[in-house]
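Kindly inspect what follows.
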Amino acid sequence: MRSVLVAAAVFGLVVGSGTAASAAQAPQASGANWTCAKDVCLRVGDESQLKDAHGCNHKVCINVTGNASGYTTSGYYSGSNRFYGHINVWGPNMRVNGRDSAYPGVAGSGRGSGQTCAEGWELSGGTYTSVGLPCEDVS
């Protein structure tokens, strides 16, 4: 079943790039097994291996590499949904506040199990508005 999901996601990536923004698309990596659900893809395998996750919510994307022994969370604007503002990332034993930019993005590293998130804040008319909050679990 996993290989069917991966094949379907890769087929969607190749054939339908730019179709539904909420459809998950498996990253292309040789030798990796990926499983996708909604707008998140996870690399699956032995528990001792690193787990990677990627997903987007509204104008913000998150990329998580690693596991509870050590992980990195990157938050960035979702391609064509650029905005002026900043992105903050946090998770177990980690918090990094980004700086305002026309191309917002930030990364941080931590250790421990729990949820890691990236939240985008768009600045307009002197007011910040949340424009996306994708989160992933670290184990």
Observations:
- The first strand starts at residue 33 and ends at 37.
- Residues 1-31 have pLDDT under 50 and may be disordered.
- Residues 92 and 114 are 6 Å apart (CA to CA).
- Residues 2-15 form the longest helix (14 residues).
